[in-house]
């Protein structure tokens, strides 16, 4: 663990008594960090708070803390971690007046391992994760900017939330939005399937980072007093509340996955839902299932838009059958006067099937064969039950004999010490001693 914490702070610099983190690199992807179990992080960091499952839950993350000061304005002796915490408390208090359930990653000046923050949100199945920050003191940057998931850049919930909050900041504070990138996202270098920022990447719900201001002497004026932070924090909270009401309704795309939110409570749905007489299943983290899904030890199949399938389905060049309940069929199936058989895998059986000492045959259509079947030069006969016949068979007052492999006999054949003569059509000609 010491080595991992060292990696988290590897880009930090000590300036006098204060710790200054490189603001971007502190959020970078680390292969070793991914190996830490999320539950372990939670147990080591938090006593997981109980939440009201009947309320929309927002996790508010005050960035940095403790020995990690974040960005620093040395001229004004202002630490980012302190601004973030004060803003977080304002946002928390305002959201609670709206009846929103709020969980804080920290409520005091405390260092918290970075991956533990989204891990907390995942553990309590939060509906939204918002990380509060202020950007570097270097340079002349100005204006608020908000970061969302790269997977929502062409339309998705985190970008919509970021835009709504940005508009609230612009309308309700003296702060402008950053001109060149007010609402934006970032891929991790050379990993186009990863968000750059840890709290966005690891959170299993919509997640954003708000940079309220830059920490330089000019832009910090937007949040340099508690009174200004109250104005800013309440604008953020108002934006969050508006985003909840506008965007968390019905089907929502989050980081490339479809989720469903109750249209009245805005709470994320889990498990089975029925929408317009169609069934869908929301699995781990509320993500809509497509393709195969094992639910309560039963298999189901969902098409590309998530609808549960029933009846006949062909996938990977194999046929399956799903009951009206959606459950995949195995074993025997009767449809009208036709019988089919499905293997334990659900695959429709064709060709030969052995069950105990009984043999059956299924046509390419899957239909169980009855009566005569020719394969190559051999003829077989199947009873109305589908069972392959062996021994004597009488059909239309004509006698046939089928050997132990089910093959129709022709020519002279000894049966029970008696020789019989069968024509090429299998019909017994005469009996000889």
UniProtKB/TrEMBL annotation:
The keyword Repressor does not apply. Residues 118-241 form the MurNAc-LAA domain. One of its GO terms (molecular function) is N-acetylmuramoyl-L-alanine amidase activity. Keywords: Hydrolase, Repeat, Signal. InterPro entries: Cell_wall/Cho-bd_repeat, MurNAc-LAA_cat, N-acetylmuramoyl_amidase_3. PROSITE patterns: CW. Cell wall-binding repeats lie at residues 269-288, 289-308, 309-328, 329-348, 369-388, 389-408. The keyword Repeat applies. This is N-acetylmuramoyl-L-alanine amidase. GO terms for biological process: peptidoglycan catabolic process. One of its GO terms (cellular component) is outer membrane-bounded periplasmic space. It comes from the Bacteria. Pfam families: Amidase_3 (PF01520), Choline_bind_1 (PF01473), Choline_bind_3 (PF19127). Residues 1-28 form the signal peptide.
């Amino acid at each position: 663990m010491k080595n991992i914490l060292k990696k988290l702070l590897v880009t930090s610099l000590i300036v006098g008594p204060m710790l200054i983190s490189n603001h971007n690199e502190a959020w970078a992807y680390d292969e070793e960090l991914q190996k830490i179990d999320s539950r372990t992080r939670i147990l080591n960091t938090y006593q997981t708070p109980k939440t009201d499952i009947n309320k929309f839950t927002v996790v508010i993350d005050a960035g940095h803390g403790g020995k990690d000061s974040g960005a620093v304005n040395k001229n004004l002796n202002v630490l980012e971690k302190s601004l973030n915490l004060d803003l977080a408390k304002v946002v928390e208090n305002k959201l609670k007046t709206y009846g929103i359930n709020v969980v804080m990653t920290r409520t005091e000046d405390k260092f918290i391992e970075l991956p533990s923050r989204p891990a907390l949100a995942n553990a309590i199945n939060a509906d939204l994760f918002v990380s509060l920050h202020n950007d570097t003191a270097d340079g002349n940057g100005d204006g608020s900017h908000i970061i969302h998931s790269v997977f929502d850049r062409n339309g998705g919930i985190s970008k919509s939330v970021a835009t709504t909050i940005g508009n609230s900041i612009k309308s309700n504070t003296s702060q402008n939005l950053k001109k060149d990138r007010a609402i934006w996202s970032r891929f991790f270098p050379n990993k186009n399937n990863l968000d750059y920022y840890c709290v966005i990447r690891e959170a299993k719900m919509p997640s954003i980072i708000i940079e309220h201001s830059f920490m330089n002497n000019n832009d910090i004026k937007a949040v340099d007093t508690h009174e200004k932070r109250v104005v800013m924090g309440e604008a953020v909270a108002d934006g969050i509340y508006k985003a909840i009401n506008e965007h968390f309704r019905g089907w929502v795309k989050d980081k490339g996955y479809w989720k469903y939110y109750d249209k009245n409570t805005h709470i994320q749905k889990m498990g089975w839902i029925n929408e317009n007489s169609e069934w869908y299943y929301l699995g781990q983290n509320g993500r809509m299932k497509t393709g195969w899904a094992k639910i309560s030890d039963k298999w189901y199949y969902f098409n590309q838009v998530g609808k549960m399938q029933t009846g006949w389905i062909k996938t990977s060049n194999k046929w399956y059958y799903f009951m009206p309940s959606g459950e995949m069929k195995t074993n025997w199936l009767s449809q009208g006067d036709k019988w089919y058989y499905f293997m334990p895998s659900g695959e429709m059986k064709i060709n030969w099937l052995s069950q105990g000492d009984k043999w059956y045959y299924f046509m390419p259509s899957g239909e169980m064969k009855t009566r005569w079947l020719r394969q190559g030069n051999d003829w077989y006969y199947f009873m109305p039950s589908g069972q392959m016949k062996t021994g004597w068979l009488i059909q239309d007052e004509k006698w046939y004999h089928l050997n132990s492999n089910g093959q129709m006999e022709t020519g002279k054949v000894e049966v029970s010490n008696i020789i019989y003569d069968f024509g090429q059509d299998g019909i017994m000609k005469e009996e000889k001693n």
